[in-house]
Design a protein that fits this description.
It is a single chain. The protein is an alpha/beta fold. It folds into 3 domains: 9-55, Archaeosine Trna-guanine Transglycosylase, Chain: A, domain 4 (Roll), CATH 2.30.130.110; 96-211, Rossmann fold (3-Layer(aba) Sandwich), CATH 3.40.50; 217-445. The chain contains 13 helices and 20 strands. It has helices at 107-117, 134-148, 168-175, 194-209, 239-252, 269-273, 279-298, 309-313, 319-326, 360-369, 398-403, 421-436, 442-445; strands at residues 9-11, 17-19, 28-31, 34-39, 48-49, 54-55, 80-85, 91-92, 96-101, 121-123, 153-160, 183-187, 215-218, 223-228, 256-259, 335-339, 350-354, 374-379, 391-395, 410-411. Helix 2 (134-148) crosses helix 10 (360-369) and helix 5 (239-252) crosses helix 12. It is globular. The chain starts with 8 loop residues before the first strand and ends in a 15-residue tail after the last helix. The mean pLDDT is 94.
């Protein structure tokens, strides 16, 4: 399969690339119409292209010029779904109770409380919150506070220990205004019996949530996270473009699209930045990308050292190739802002880049903390990993969809067999809205939900 008329490769049924003409040593190899690296030796017509004969062109901090692409016009739509309207005007698609430990030392108690309390209580455990300083501690606080404010949580119990760096009082300094009826706190060292006290608070929250009912809510209130993990050679051909088309549909309804994985933009910056809604947005997003490049360099790592062994086995050879497929998940939605840690996505429709690494666990946590109601997660290799919010797994190939039917919510591999893209887009959009109205995702059925927090500093 040839993707673009300028390409020098075609993709086989196994996701691997072969040359469609002779490629000379040092010449750029083209896929998606862009260079994905250069040939390290002469490559014959029909020869397979992989890390053995292809090398990334990436280096340094990068320089890009503001050259906005012609704006794409979308027909605006109106529509509703059945969700939970919160007092602050936001909407939730779930009505759960989240137990959020301030520190890893309280994580075991959080899990035990959730197990004892039963549905709809969920523990979001993590290993941080103590022995952290400076930016690392602030990052932990900001992510946890973003989760505390998430509209999918009708109630939250913040569980502290009492001696940690990230004590409840310090958490409150970052938390800002909150509803004391729905956001509760418990310090374990202050309790004689933390299970009794914790279960009593959770029961009170359950009684409050019992009065919450779904109602018609504009689709424009939704924030959709997009993510890829365990990618393969078909990620940028089937699942990612399909999710991009669904992102455009949601944008037409006035929804927000959230994308992260900043290192998986390396090599596709011009394609992404050309959609910036203004010079200010261009500059702020370019700054986030440069800072992440600088982070790699400061740690002595090459900025192109990204594709995992699974990515390579699936047909991805360089970071440029991975990135050019990755950015397709947002379609042609205009880029409207870059969000830092702890930032909540604005109400204005558009694409927002959330600062953070490509690591799957950290990325889905960042998307959730920024306000994503659900996440569209494409995968070619398969993964059971899910965020605390519904995480729909979209397979790039039908073999994976059949093998891991208990993981995969939607098969985009049908595109390879000639299925109608427009029809698949409509089906995936409808699945998203059905899940928003309460249908459990495969991950929810399996009770998969994890969080992880970015760390870069000293551990005491």
């Amino acid at each position: 399969m040839r993707i673009h008329e300028l390409d020098t490769v075609e993709v086989g049924i196994d996701g691997q690339k072969t040359a469609i003409r002779t490629i000379k040593k040092g010449e750029n190899v083209i896929k998606y119409g862009f260079p994905i690296g250069h040939a390290t030796r002469d490559i014959a017509h029909g020869e397979r292209i992989d890390p053995g004969n292809l090398k990334s062109n990436l280096s340094g901090l990068g320089e890009w010029q503001y050259r906005p692409a012609e704006a794409v016009t979308f027909s605006q739509k109106e529509g509703t779904f059945r969700g939970f309207l919160r007092p602050d005007g936001r909407a939730g698609i779930r009505n759960e109770i989240w137990i959020i430990p301030t520190v890893g030392c309280a994580a075991g108690v959080a899990r035990k409380l959730a197990e004892r309390a039963g549905e709809p209580v969920r523990a979001l455990s993590h290993p941080y919150g103590c022995s952290q300083l400076g930016d690392d501690l602030l990052t932990t606080q900001q992510v946890l506070c973003g989760l505390c404010h998430h509209p999918n949580a009708g109630g939250v119990l913040v569980l502290g220990l009492g001696c940690e760096n990230n004590g409840i009082d310090r958490m409150k300094e970052v938390l800002g205004a909150y509803d004391p009826l729905r956001l509760r706190f418990l310090n374990l060292q202050d309790c004689e019996d933390e299970m009794t006290d914790g279960l009593a608070i959770l029961q009170e929250l359950k009684e409050i949530l019992a009065g919450d009912q779904r109602t018609d809510v504009p689709i424009s209130k939704l924030a959709i996270g997009v993510k890829c993990g365990g990618s393969d050679g078909y990620s940028g051909i089937t699942a990612n473009p399909l999710v991009g088309a669904v992102s455009e549909r949601f944008f037409a309804y006035g929804a927000r699209i959230l994308m992260t994985e900043i290192p998986e933009v390396f090599g596709a910056e011009e394609l992404l930045l050309s959609r910036a809604a203004s010079k200010e947005v261009f500059d702020s997003t370019a700054d986030v990308i440069r800072r992440f490049r600088a982070y790699f360099i400061a740690h002595g790592e090459g900025i192109a050292d990204n594709p995992s062994p699974g990515n390579i086995a699936g047909g991805i050879s360089t970071l440029e190739e991975k990135s050019l497929g990755c950015v397709q998940k947002a379609g042609r939605v205009p880029l409207c802002g870059a969000l830092g840690y702890g930032d909540t996505v604005p109400e204005n429709a558009g694409l927002y880049m959330v600062d953070g690494p490509g690591n799957d666990q950290v990325a889905i946590t960042n998307l959730t903390a920024a306000g994503a109601h659900l996440i569209l997660f494409t995968t070619g290799r398969g993964t059971p990993l899910c965020a605390p919010v519904p995480t729909l797994k979209i397979s790039t190939n039908s073999v994976l969809a059949k093998k891991k039917a208990h993981w995969i919510d939607f098969d985009a591999g049908a595109i390879v067999e000639g299925a109608c893209r427009e029809s698949l887009c409509a089906d995936l959009l409808q699945l998203c809205l059905t899940v928003a109205e309460g249908k459990p995702s495969k991950g929810e059925e399996g009770n998969y939900a994890d969080i992880a927090i970015f760390k870069d500093g000293v551990t005491l």
